[in-house]
Structure formats: C-alpha cells, structure tokens
Design brief:
The protein has 338 residues and is α/β, with parallel strands linked by helices. It has 13 helices and 14 strands. The strands form three sheets. The protein has a six-stranded parallel beta sheet with strand order 4-1-5-6-7-13, covered by helices on one side. Helix 7 links the parallel strand 5 and strand 6. The longest helix is centred in the N-terminal third of the chain and has 16 residues. The termini are far apart. The N terminus is likely disordered.
C-alpha cells in the first residue's frame, strides 16, 4: 500500500509521483490513445499502489457495472493458450453469465504473460476489479510469487499444485484420468493409449491414467503415452503415425474432447471402427462431444459452476481462499460401446 491509506490520493499526487502533468495522469487513467502504453502502465500501477479511488473519478461503464473482470491467458510452450479452443470458449461464456449475474463487466485481455513481470502487469496495471487467469501455463512458481508480493486480486482456472499459495478453481484431474482408464479396463480394453500435453492439468490426468492402469493389472507400455498439445489436428497426426508403425491399442484416454475427436478421425481413416475396434474417452464434455459421430464418452467438467466460482472468488477476493476441486463425472456415450 502507498502512503495515503485513507483514499486521499489526488491527481496532483499521482502527477508528482509519476513526474508528469496532471492532464497526462487524467488522460492515462481514462485510457486515451495519445498516452503511451508504458506511461499508462506506470500511472495505473502508481494509482493502485497509492489507493487512488478509480471509480469516484473515472467514467462509469456504459451499463453502470458494479465491477469488471479481466480474463488473461498465459503462454504455454512458447505461445498463448488458444482462445479458439472450444472448452475455453464455453468456460468464457459461463464466466460471462456469472459476471452478468453480479452486474459486472468482463473483458478478454490481449496480453499473454510469459514471465513474472508480465503477471505483475496483468494484475496491477488494469483498471479491472480482478483478473482470472485461464490456466497456469508453466508459471506456477511465478503465480505463487505474485500471490505474496502484490495486492492484486486474481484467481486461476487450473490444477491444484503442491505448495500452492494462490486460489485456483479446477476439476479433480487425477480422479478424472483414473475413472476414464478404469472404465475402459472394465470393458476389457487392455492396450489403452493416453493422449495429452505438458500443462499441469494434463500431467495430473496422466497420473490418474497411470493409477488406473496399475489398478487394472495392465502392463504399462511407454509407447502408449503420447504427447499431444491442444489441437485436433495434432492428435489425429500422432495417432495416424502410431497406427502406421503398427502400435497395438484398443482404447484411448484423451486429456480433452478435441484431442479425442482427432484420435477418432485417425482411427476411422485407418479403416478401424469406434467403438468396435477402439473405445475412446475424452475430457471436458464440450458441446461438440454430444454432436460428434459417434457421440463421445467423456469426463465432464462443470463449466457453469466453474464460471460462478471464478467470478465470486475474484470479486469477493480474500487471500485466505483455498483452491477448489470441482467433482468430475464420467459421461458414457457411443464412443465406448456397450
């Protein structure tokens, strides 16, 4: 906190602290394009640090919102988490519904943090009431540092990690991966493939898969654990390569519905049937999973409850908020067979 703890900071105070004119401070706080992004960031950071009362001086939102939320997607393996991913689109929609219920505006930020300084900018140079990060990317340690070194309000959609100091909302990833694997094993599948990436949620789902394999008495085969990041096309190509090499598998556990649908495309193009030859389980329960042919068995994540919790945790922020594990449900559809 700054030296003025009773919200007595004025435009003149900010101007003196920033070494600029009062008019520059006013224009920066109003996000006018004539002021450089660097200057705006410095002034917004000073305003937050010194408890400048934004809403008393700044124009109200067009619909008189009682607050605002910024949605930020961190980098993952050298690129932003893709907003075009259907699951993230559905989750953003549910965040929007929850924000609307709280008379709150929300925006999707153009920023995509790659390091600690980027995270600090995301939570301290925005005029939003708080920030929702969609995924941890590879920034778990930096998010821990952020939670203990700034007064920014933020919550993360993602995995619950060891030693976590920030609030997150996410599904029970290990249980989800385990349930999908055990279901396929109970159906008699003995060569079950895992398709997933290197983000924290996917790694936890892979651990659940490994637990399910061990519990079922199936011999683990490293060739059946395949790295795939996000895209349907990448999953399709990876499975097609395995089929071409003669790798034997009769089940697939995927870390997302999109990856599962890519696997099904490759299996069908190879002249095999789903679920006759191969049973497939995805993760998310996106709308696409209910519309595909065959319809996709999946581990359901409750995006409506996730959106509500993310919004409530960031608007009613408390550093004492604990991570939330949402339950997962196995939804059995045509891709698993009888």
């Amino acid at each position: 906190m700054g030296t003025n703890s009773n919200n007595n900071t004025t435009l003149q105070d900010l101007a003196k602290l920033a070494g600029v004119s009062v008019s520059t401070v006013s224009r920066a706080l109003n996000d006018e394009p004539v002021i450089s992004a660097k200057t705006k960031q410095r002034i917004w950071a000073l305003a937050r640090e010194h408890d400048y009362p934004f809403r008393h001086y700044m124009p109200a939102a067009p619909i008189g919102a009682e607050g605002s939320i910024a949605i930020v997607t961190p980098h993952m393996r050298g690129r932003p988490v893709p907003l075009t991913h259907p699951f993230f689109l559905e989750l953003i929609a549910q965040i929007g519904e929850a924000a609307r219920a709280r008379s709150c505006d929300f925006m999707v930020s153009h920023t995509s943090p790659e390091n600690y300084d980027d995270l600090v900018h995301a939570v301290t140079t925005s005029r939003a009431s708080g920030v929702i990060f969609l995924g941890q990317g590879m920034l778990h340690d930096q998010l821990n540092q952020l939670a203990t070194s700034t007064n920014g309000h933020f919550v993360v959609w993602g995995a619950h990690m060891p030693g976590q100091k920030y609030c997150s909302v996410g599904s029970d990833n290990m249980l989800g991966g385990r349930r999908a694997t055990l279901h396929l094993a109970r159906m008699g599948r003995r060569n079950i493939m895992f398709l997933g990436g290197s983000d924290p949620e996917a790694l936890q789902r892979r651990r659940g898969y490994m637990e399910g394999v061990r519990e079922s008495g199936i011999e683990a085969d490293p060739k059946l654990v395949v790295a795939v990041e996000f895209e349907l096309e990448a999953a399709e190509a990876a499975v097609a390569r395995l089929i071409h090499r003669g790798v034997v598998f009769d089940g697939v556990v995927a870390t997302s519905d999109l990856i599962a649908l890519g696997a099904i495309r490759a299996i069908k193009r190879a002249g095999r049937s789903v679920p006759g030859d191969v049973s497939v389980v995805g993760y998310d329960d996106m709308l696409l999973s209910r519309l595909s042919t065959p319809t996709l068995s999946t581990i359901r994540q409750d995006t409506a409850e996730a959106g509500r919790l993310l919004v409530s945790r960031v608007l009613d922020f408390s550093p004492d908020h604990l991570p939330v594990h949402l339950p997962t449900d196995l939804i059995v559809r045509e891709s698993c067979g009888g």
